[in-house]
Each structure stands twice: as structure tokens, then as C-alpha cells.
């Protein structure tokens, strides 16, 4: 399926052999869960982690054309963007969405520490995204006698902004629980209806809804003077966040967090009301 003429631009692999073995084992079907009374403390967190990794894989399968480990754009299924091999992920494209998807796959494989090989721009982009996710990355040049990329202070600033953006993304909240004494229609009204509408959406309609939301975020960032390359990173982050929440069945709910945003401007002070009559003058 992969184009034999495609050029390898970089690779991502686990930094330790133990991680590679554990990721291979994690792809096997998990054993049946024991009864709740017999489960060890922390089992809930393990289940949540497994579901998170499963959601990442499902998200990748819904976004890309996948065949024998080759991930491609559905519109160009014969042109590989990246390829998942036994102990590494091979990049044939270095755009931000592809790098994000490669790191999604790395996290699904439970690679918390990675080794990145490629040209300096590839190393830089992977390092920024990995650090923003809390992953450790060691950089290696793919050219003989050439030093690996050295992250700069500007790169660290981008990482900090991405982390801050992820923190704001965590403020997206689920629909609140119905009030006590609500009728069945009130209890299941807007949230259930919205979920039903999303379930009837075509992929094109869902993509259009996501584009509209992301365009609004980008417009707001532009008004705040955020640099174009940082906005691109945040747009990609928002797009995958929306897809992950959709796959998990969690309805996004936006919140206004900027006090100066429209709708949060305090009302203008009103002038004092005039007295109904002239004040009396003492004699």
C-alpha cells in the first residue's frame, strides 16, 4: 500500500526496551475484569488509562486510512503519512497534525519516553509536542557528524503556551445533572437531543461543526496577538480534543473564561436620578 518512493523523514521509538515489550503486550486483548469486591486499589485508574489509550486508537482509525500499519490521508490512501512498525513509528510527513497523530500512537503504545531521529525541524516539532504532553524525548540527528537539535528558550515558551491551552481545554464541562423533581422530558431534554443529533450527523457535518468551533478559537487567539505558528499548534490540539471527546461520548460545553470577552463587559454606570422637586432654601 505504501508508496515505495516516499522518503523517510524521521522516526519515533521507545527509549527503553521495556516500554517496547509492554506496548506489544498492551495490544493483546485484556483479561476479563474481576468482580468489584475482588479488585485491587487503583484498578479504576488502570481501567481509565486503558480506555484512554483505546480512544486514541479509535480516533486514529477514524481520522486516517489504516492498512497493515500504514496511516494515510483517506483522500490519498496510497501515500503514507507515517507507518507503525514493531518498535518504531516512521514519519513520511512532518506537518503538525501528523506529528500529533504519531505521538497519539506512541501514547497508545504506552511510550512515555521516546527517542526521536530526523532532521532538526522534525526533532524540534516532535520535542515541543512531546514536552507539552509530559513525555520525555531524546533527540538524535539522522546525519553523520551533525549534532542533534538543541531546544531554545522560544521552544520552551511554546511548550508553556500549549500546556496553558490544555489547561483551559480542561475547563470544558459536561452538561450539568438535571435538577431535583424534573420531569422525564426536562431531565433528558437538551443533552439527549443534542447527543441524538450528533449521532445522526454525517462525517462531513461533524467536520464542519468542528471547523466552525476551531475557527472561533483561532479568531479569538488572533485578536490577542498570539503568533501564527502557536495558533496552528493550538488549532491542532483543539481539533483532536474535540474528536477524542466525541469518541468518548462526552458533549463539549464551552465556557467564557476571559473577563473582557463579549458578554462579560460590566454595564455602564447610570447617572444619578434627579430629585422630584427643588431643594428648599433656608431663610
Report on the architecture of this protein.
The protein has two domains: 10-25 and 46-151, no CATH class; 156-174 and 198-255, no CATH class. It is of the alpha+beta class and 283 residues long. Strands 2-3-4-5-1-6-7 form a seven-stranded mixed β-sheet. α4 runs parallel beside α5 (153-169). The protein is built from eight helices and seven strands; from the N terminus they run βααββββαβαβαααα. The model is unreliable at 168-177, 184-191 and 278-283 (pLDDT under 50). α4 links the parallel β6 (113-118) and β7 (136-141). Helices cover 47% and strands 11% of the residues.
Quick structural gist:
The chain contains eight helices and seven strands. It has 283 residues and is of the alpha+beta class.
Topology:
Layout: E1 10-14, H1 17-26, H2 43-63, E2 65-67, E3 70-72, E4 80-84, E5 89-91, H3 96-108, E6 113-118, H4 120-132, E7 136-141, H5 153-169, H6 184-200, H7 203-223, H8 228-247
Parallel strand pairs: 6-7
Antiparallel strand pairs: 1-5, 1-6, 2-3, 3-4, 4-5
Helix pairs in contact: 2-3, 2-8, 3-4, 4-5, 5-8, 7-8
Describe this protein with a few key phrases.
disordered C terminus, 283 residues, 2 domains, alpha+beta, seven-stranded mixed beta sheet
